Amino acid sequence: MQYKLLEMVLGKAAWLRKQFGELQMPHPAYPTWPSPKQLAKLDRMRFPSYQGAQTPEALIAEFDEAFLQSYPQSVDWDTRYPKQKWIQSLLEKGAHFKNASDYSYYLQLRRDLLEKQHQSDEWRSGKYGIPITTDFQEYENGFIERKIWENRMLRKVSAENTNTPLTTIFFPSNYPDKYLPVIGKMTYIRRGEGSSLKTWGTTLTQEQRDDLLYRGKHPEDIEIVYIDGSYNLLSEPPKPYNREQWIQENAYITEMDGIPLTPGNYEDVLGQPMPERWKKWYETEHATRNQGIVSAPDTETLRAAARDAMKTEQTRFQQGLRELERFVNMSDAEFEAELQRRFTPQLPELPTIQRLENQLWSEAQSARMTPARFQAALKILEKYGSEEGMRKLRQADPKAAAEVKQILGGAATPGESSQPFMKSKPEDQRRPPRPNAP
Hints:
The protein is built from 18 helices and seven strands. By secondary structure, the chain is mainly alpha-helical. Among the domains are: 36-160, no CATH class; 185-245, no CATH class; 252-284, no CATH class; 358-424. The strands form three sheets. A three-stranded mixed sheet has the order 4-3-5, with no helix packed on it.
């Protein structure tokens, strides 16, 4: 056992030495990153301009094989959005396929729509200027038109900067008519309240972000562009953030010399109106603080409620005493009758025989067969015979068939309605006499 354990330890040590030795081996140096002009040339070689026909058949023949190699899962998208029909709809909306990159861009939009169809909050939000709708097909049309416009803007910026291939565009969702083109190593900076800082474009290190925020120092190799909250370019960069100064200028003063400050007394105490942003903060803070807190009633209200409750209880007690006194003074017969009255359940009034007869007669009269229906039934029986005629009569007029069956002296068959109870009436109001038996 000891030898086996020692063998395992030695084997593990040998494996660790091997792994450590591989880490110490010299690795090849990373190649030098190409210049912007070299990258532009590589981009044109990778996506040469397409000069063929702008038709679904020609575009599929030119680009689809390479597209399927990169996106084999796209065959699943064809079920909902057939490729040829999809390209045709894009062309009708004004799309132009310049190269393989455009083909890949437009055909991948199908995947985006398949994902969004299950996100109703997203496609009904009105983002990117797409009209708000409850019909997903209408959203599809707006989405495609928006993406065609975005790709057109991207191509426009790329054409204006042919020597800089690292170009992309950020489209703000709440400002559909604006876009931020990132040309080369560029970063957009938007300063918010306090130390808030948002960026779009080339990624900044934490050190570079701190230099920008606290010292106003720009990175040497990255172009910095400042924008405001509406994505408009700023002519001058904002001042570096100073925490102490910001607190002094923006911190809300809650009291002065022990006096709580409110929008009503702020100007009287400090000699200047309360800033609007502090008024909003005050209203929000106090609304949140007081939410769900019920004010305690005053002393007089509590006393009045206690007096009313005591008066009600005293009245009930007096009524109970009077009821007890009445029971004590009852005779045995009166006591037994009272118990029966209290504990015997009250049954509803039973109907009289006359009411039952009237109800049955009204039901029978409503179902009674008229002479015209009777003559029509006889014609069917004469034409088709008794057995076949009764079958056809049951199909045409089940109630008439049931009454004819009873008139002829037979009982209603299963599934046929039987004649209700009929009250005896004068001779001239009775039903037609039975015909002679065949």
